[in-house]
Design goal:
With 230 residues, the protein is α/β, with parallel strands linked by helices. It contains ten helices and eight strands.
């Protein structure tokens, strides 16, 4: 029986025109590099953003200091604030409806993200969602010690919603690291979704339970699982 669904934000439930990874690339390349957008998304998708910067820089095989990483990260945060202030952020199609349908089935809904809390809360507010109503909780990379693919954020989501058994949890995300996070937490179902950072061929490399193409497809999977356990 499914009791909790943990959703990634950017690319999964939030449509922000991929501005995060475009901004990561801008900040890294402003420091003297020439990484492509594809390289940035392949190496950094779904991760806490300073870790994403480390992993993108590592692609060139060079020696990069933590001071350099933090300088790029500071530039990224500044650029992202400006980008979000002017960006028309919306929810992914049927996100709110999917949350409501899950609640109607008695299933909790949590957002989790590689953003820090300040950025995540700004996004939630801009879309118009209310924590405690539209979703039951928000868990961010700055709330835990270890970011994805470590299971810490999912464990915190379970604690906040009083869910004891990870086999009753679904994790949904648009990157391989989302899938791996769910697997490391021993979630009963891990789903990739093709609305964001990585295409189906990449998502399948992490061996999710399934790959979906629209959030509404989640409901049929949840219902099938519930019927199978009756």
């Amino acid at each position: 029986m499914i009791e909790l669904v943990v959703f990634d934000m950017a690319g999964t439930t939030v449509d922000e025109d991929n501005v995060v990874y475009k901004t990561v690339r801008q900040s890294i390349n402003a420091a003297g590099y020439s990484f492509t957008q594809e390289q940035v998304q392949a190496a950094g998708a779904g991760k806490e953003k300073s870790q994403a910067i480390r992993d993108v820089l590592a692609l060139d095989g060079g020696d990069h200091s933590e001071a350099e990483v933090q300088a790029i990260f500071a530039d990224f945060k500044s650029r992202l604030v400006e980008a979000y202030d002017s960006l028309d952020v919306t929810e992914q199609p049927a996100a709110s409806k999917t949350f409501a349908e899950l609640h109607a089935r008695g299933i909790k809904v949590v957002l989790n993200t590689g953003y820090d809390r300040q950025t995540a809360e700004k996004l939630v507010h801009k879309i118009g969602w209310t924590i405690g109503e539209d979703v039951d909780a928000l868990v961010t990379a700055s709330d835990v010690e270890a970011g994805r693919p470590a299971p810490d954020m999912i464990y915190l989501a379970m604690a906040l919603t009083e869910i004891a058994n990870a086999s009753c949890v679904v994790k949904v995300g648009d990157s391989r690291i989302d899938i791996e996070e769910g697997q490391n937490a021993k979630c009963g179902i891990t789903l990739g979704i093709t609305t964001g950072a990585q295409p189906e061929i990449d998502l399948l490399q992490s061996k999710p339970t399934a790959v979906i193409h629209h959030l509404s497809e989640l409901l049929a999977l949840v219902d099938q699982t519930s019927q199978a356990t009756v």
